[in-house]
């Protein structure tokens, strides 16, 4: 397929308000609608096919899955929980913004209603889109993104749900305690579910949260990097799982004064934040003057999710002082454009394909399918900030590599000891 810049055809304003053919619509360019319009349009492009179909109970019917050539032969039905859970975790802060009369606001309201109806279908045993909660252990992984979204946007996505749906969700999440997580990043998936249960007043298992936190801290190797288990992997799992989930789990434990033997969640959260900020300094320096970044490690097909920590700290107004908002926004814009310019990132029906910067199925891992790709939405968390926030309105600044390769002055880099 010939490469072309499909990102840029939606006119700012009317385009974000509603799509006659959402799978084929393209998001606006930064040149015509600004940085925020570009990001909102691209997230809408990712979200609309999944949410519009699942809201009708037709996701399984209409989402034609692509499976990695190296698949381990697992039940492909896990892909639908992956698609919805991962997508909604990244979209939740944006959907949680207050309604307004803008075109973007109308789009958010419409997608939010689709998301709520999707949650209903996800746990209704009579729905065609009842998700695979009780089979493959993969359900533990993606349940954590499913609950992470509810934790990120409780008033928008949890509180409006009917009582029956809430009860069903709690039952399905508690039912996943049957799965014993291996001592790798999976510990944090189990812990995230327990943290969410704690956040809504349900009984939580402190063993599943506390063991995860202790092991992740044991795996810290220094200068902002965390191992995934006993071995170090040069990849982006500190972005996909480690730092975002560690921070948000610790925050819940701190808020709810949860038991933590011989430790203080507030102190651990402060430490984790400092380490995340340091890791974000590395991530920002990875972005080249053209917006590209190193294609390293496992799960490379998760695309822009490699920058989830930068998006998370931007949304939470916790970026380190070394990373001004205008600099981070400009770098993130360049990165998204470098990845998503290829039209074959999406199928003709609008679903994400397996690949990195386009359709590259050979890059799929043995655990990958096209539903797995929706963790890419994690790089859009800053859309949870309103349009008038300084993140969106501050002047764009050159990022580190752009300064470095233009001969401009840029900050020297040193390791840290925390």
Concise structural overview:
By secondary structure, the protein is mostly helical.
**Which stretches of 5+ consecutive residues score pLDDT under 50?**
1-32
- How would you characterize the largest beta sheet? 2 strands, antiparallel
Average pLDDT taken over every residue: 92
Shape call: globular
CATH class: Mainly Alpha
* Percent helix: 40-55%
CATH architecture: Alpha/alpha barrel
The helix/strand class is: mainly alpha
Describe this structure in words.
- Residues 35-399 form the DUF2264 domain.
- This is DUF2264 domain-containing protein.
- Pfam families: DUF2264.
- With 418 residues, the chain is an all-alpha fold.
- It has one domain: Alpha/alpha barrel (Glycosyltransferase), CATH 1.50.10.
- Helix content is 49%, strand content 1%.
- It is built from 16 helices and 2 strands.
- Strands 1-2 form a two-stranded antiparallel ribbon.
- β1 (220-222) and β2 (225-226) form a beta hairpin.
- α2 packs across α4, α4 packs antiparallel against α5 (103-122) and α6 crosses α9.
- The relative contact order is 0.14.
């Amino acid at each position: 397929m010939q490469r072309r810049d499909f990102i840029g055809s939606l006119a700012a304003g009317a385009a974000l308000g509603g799509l006659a053919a959402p799978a084929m619509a393209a998001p606006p360019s930064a040149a015509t609608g600004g940085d925020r319009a570009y990001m909102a349009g691209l997230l809408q492009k990712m979200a609309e096919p999944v949410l519009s179909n699942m809201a009708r109970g037709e996701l399984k019917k209409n989402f034609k899955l692509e499976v990695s050539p190296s698949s381990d032969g697992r039940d492909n039905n896990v892909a639908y929980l992956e698609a919805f859970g991962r997508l909604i975790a990244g979209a939740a802060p944006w959907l949680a913004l207050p309604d307004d009369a803008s075109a973007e606001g109308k789009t958010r309201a419409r997608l939010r209603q689709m998301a709520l109806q999707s949650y209903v279908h996800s746990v209704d045993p009579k729905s065609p889109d009842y998700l695979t909660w009780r089979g493959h252990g993969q359900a533990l992984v993606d349940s954590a993104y499913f609950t992470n979204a509810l934790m990120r946007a409780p008033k928008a996505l949890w509180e409006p749900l009917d009582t029956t749906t809430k009860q069903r969700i709690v039952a399905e999440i508690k039912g996943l305690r049957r799965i014993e997580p291996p001592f790798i990043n999976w510990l944090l998936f189990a812990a995230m579910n327990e943290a969410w249960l704690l956040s809504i007043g349900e009984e939580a298992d402190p063993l599943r949260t506390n063991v995860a936190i202790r092991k992740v801290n044991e795996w810290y190797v220094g200068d902002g990097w965390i191992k995934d288990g006993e071995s170090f992997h040069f990849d982006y799992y500190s972005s996909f799982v480690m730092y975002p989930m560690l921070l948000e789990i610790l925050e819940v434990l701190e808020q709810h004064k949860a038991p933590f033997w011989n430790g203080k969640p507030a102190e651990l959260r402060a430490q984790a934040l400092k380490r995340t900020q340091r890791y974000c300094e590395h991530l920002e320096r990875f972005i080249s003057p053209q917006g590209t970044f190193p294609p390293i490690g496992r799960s490379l097909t998760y695309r822009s999710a490699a920058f989830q920590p930068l998006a998370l700290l931007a949304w939470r107004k916790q970026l380190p002082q070394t990373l001004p908002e205008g600099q981070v926004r400009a770098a993130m814009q360049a990165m998204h454009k470098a990845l998503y310019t290829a039209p074959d990132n999406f199928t003709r029906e609008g679903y994400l394909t397996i690949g990195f910067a386009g359709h590259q199925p050979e890059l799929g891992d043995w655990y990958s399918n096209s539903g797995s790709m929706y963790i890419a939405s994690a790089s859009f968390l800053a859309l949870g900030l309103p349009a008038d926030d300084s993140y969106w309105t501050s002047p764009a600044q050159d990022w580190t590599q752009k300064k470095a390769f233009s001969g401009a002055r840029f900050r020297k880099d040193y390791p840290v000891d925390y």
